[in-house]
Design goal:
The complex is a heterodimer. By secondary structure, chain A is α+β, with helices and mostly antiparallel strands. Helix content of chain A is about 15%, strand content about 40%. The radius of gyration of chain A is 13 Å and the shape is globular. In chain B, strands 1-2 form a two-stranded antiparallel ribbon. Chain B is globular. The chains are: A alpha+beta, B mainly alpha. Bound molecules: zinc ion (2 copies).
Chain lengths: ~100, ~300
C-alpha cells in the first residue's frame, strides 16, 4: 500500500495505479513520485488525467486520487486540501483522455 | 498452429505452455498489448506461469463444440455480460448524440468492412464463402436498388434525419480508436487465413443478433420496442437503419459462423480463429467506445 509514505499523489490500488493490474513491471513518475503501472499506456493515462483535472479545477496540485472502474469508464475522485471533485473518465487505447465529465457532488 | 492474440506469434497447437511463457515474458517487459490482453481476457492479477498455462487452457477450451459456440459465449461475456458495453446501454433508448456518434464513426467501419470481406473473396476458393461475401457486401454497401438500400445508405439517411448534412458526415475523419480498429481489421484481413477473417468480421455481427439471449445475453442491442410503429422515440430513418441490421444480422452471422465452423474444422484452424476473434472483439470494444465519445464531442443542444 502507498499509505505510510509521503506520497504527493495517493491512489487506492496495490497494483497498477490506474487499472489495478499486477501484471507488467513499469515504473513511471507522476507529480514527482515513482509509481507502479502495468504498462506505459496506464502511465500515460494517469499523466493525462492529472493534467486534465488540474486544468478543469484550477488546482495546482492534487493530494489524493481514487480511481475505480474499468476501461468502460472510470470514476475518479480527486482531493486537494479541503476541496474535492469527481469525474467520469474514459481513455482511448493510446492513453489519451477520451471523455471527461464532471460529476455532480 | 495457434497464435498469440496480441502479436500473432505462432505456437504449437494444443500446448499452452509455450504460449503462457510468451505472455509471461511479454508481461515482464510491460508490453501494453500483451498486458492489456491478459487484463481483459484472463485476469488482472498476476499468476505463476503454470497457473497461466491452465488459465489459457480453460479460456480456449471448446468443450468439443463448434468454435462458433465459443465465439458466441465470448461475445456475450464481453458486450452483454454483467457489465454490458456502455454503447449497448446507450442504444437501448438512444439519444441524438448516441445515434450521430454511431453514424459518423460507422461510415468508416463500413468502408473497412468491404475491404475486409474483399480480402476473404480474394483468398478463398470455396464457392459458398464467395457467394456469401458477395451478398454481404451488397447488403452492407452496394444495395439492391431503390427498394432495398444498403446499410451504408440507410446509415447516412439516419444521420440526415437527425439534422446532419451528408457532406458533413462524409468529411468527418474517424476518432483515433476507430482508426486504430480499422487498421487492426485491415491487418487481420491482409495477414490471416480467410477463415480467421470471416470469424473476425462476421463474428461482430453478433452484436445485433437477437438469438444471443439464448446464449445468456440479458439485453438486446437496442430495446426492440423503439422500432414499433407507434413509438416516436427515434426518427423513421433511424428505425429503417436499425431494423435492417436487426432483421439481417441474426441470419447473417449464423450463416457466416456456420462457414467458419465448417472450414476451421476442414483446415484445423480453430485455435487461430479463437485468437483472431479475441483480437477483433477487443478492437470492436474500443471502436464502440469511440462512437460514444464522438457523440459527446458533438456541438448539440441537449
Ligand atoms: Zn494498468
Ligand atoms: Zn504475443
Amino acid at each position: 500500500m502507498l499509505a505510510g509514505k509521503n506520497w504527493i499523489l495517493k491512489t487506492n490500488f496495490q497494483g497498477c495505479a490506474v487499472c489495478g493490474s499486477t501484471w507488467g513491471n513499469y515504473w513511471g513518475e507522476i507529480e514527482g513520485e515513482r509509481m507502479f503501472f502495468c504498462c506505459k499506456i496506464c502511465h500515460l493515462e494517469l499523466h493525462n488525467l492529472v493534467l486534465k483535472i488540474k486544468q478543469s479545477t484550477g488546482w495546482e496540485k492534487i493530494d489524493e486520487l481514487n480511481i475505480e472502474g474499468s476501461y468502460a469508464g472510470r470514476n475518479c475522485l480527486a482531493r486537494a486540501g479541503e476541496k474535492s471533485a469527481s469525474f467520469l473518465v474514459t481513455f482511448d487505447s493510446l492513453g489519451e483522455v477520451q471523455t471527461f465529465n464532471k460529476l455532480p457532488k | 498452429m495457434t497464435k498469440c492474440s496480441a502479436c500473432s506469434s505462432k505456437f504449437p497447437r494444443g500446448d499452452y505452455a509455450p504460449l503462457a511463457t510468451h505472455y509471461y515474458i511479454q508481461s515482464e517487459q510491460s508490453d501494453p498489448a500483451h498486458v492489456m490482453w491478459l487484463n481483459r481476457f484472463v485476469t488482472n492479477q498476476k499468476m505463476s506461469q503454470q497457473d497461466l498455462e491452465r488459465a489459457l487452457h480453460r479460456l480456449f477450451d471448446l468443450k468439443d463444440k463448434p468454435v462458433s459456440d465459443w465465439m458466441r459465449k465470448k461475445f456475450v461475456e464481453r458486450f452483454f455480460g454483467v457489465r454490458p458495453h456502455p454503447f449497448v446501454l446507450a442504444l437501448q433508448h438512444p439519444s441524438k448524440r448516441t445515434l450521430l456518434g454511431y453514424v459518423i464513426e460507422h461510415q468508416h467501419f463500413l468502408r473497412q468492412w468491404v475491404r475486409s470481406c474483399s480480402y476473404i473473396m480474394a483468398k478463398t476458393d470455396k464457392t459458398d464463402a464467395t457467394l456469401y461475401e458477395l451478398d454481404n457486401i451488397n447488403t452492407e454497401f452496394g444495395g439492391f436498388g431503390p427498394d432495398k438500400l444498403s446499410h451504408y445508405e440507410l446509415l447516412l439517411r439516419m444521420g440526415e434525419s437527425l439534422g446532419m448534412d451528408r457532406q458533413e458526415i462524409l468529411s468527418t475523419t474517424p476518432l483515433p480508436d476507430t482508426e486504430k480498429a480499422i487498421d487492426g481489421w485491415d491487418d487481420i484481413a491482409k495477414k490471416s487465413h480467410w477463415v480467421e477473417t470471416m470469424a473476425a468480421m462476421h463474428g461482430l455481427e453478433l452484436i445485433a443478433d437477437r438469438t444471443l439471449v439464448d446464449s445468456g445475453a440479458t439485453l438486446h442491442y437496442f430495446e426492440p420496442s423503439i422500432l414499433d410503429k407507434s413509438n416516436n422515440e427515434v426518427t423513421e430513418a433511424t428505425k429503417n437503419f436499425l431494423r435492417e441490421g436487426y432483421e439481417a444480422d441474426a441470419g447473417h452471422s449464423k450463416e457466416a459462423l456456420d462457414l467458419v465452423d465448417k472450414y476451421s474444422a476442414e483446415y484445423s484452424l480453430a485455435e487461430d480463429v479463437q485468437a483472431t476473434f479475441l483480437s477483433s472483439i477487443d478492437l470492436f470494444y474500443s471502436y464502440l467506445m469511440a462512437r460514444l465519445a464522438r457523440g459527446e464531442k458533438l456541438d448539440l443542444e441537449d
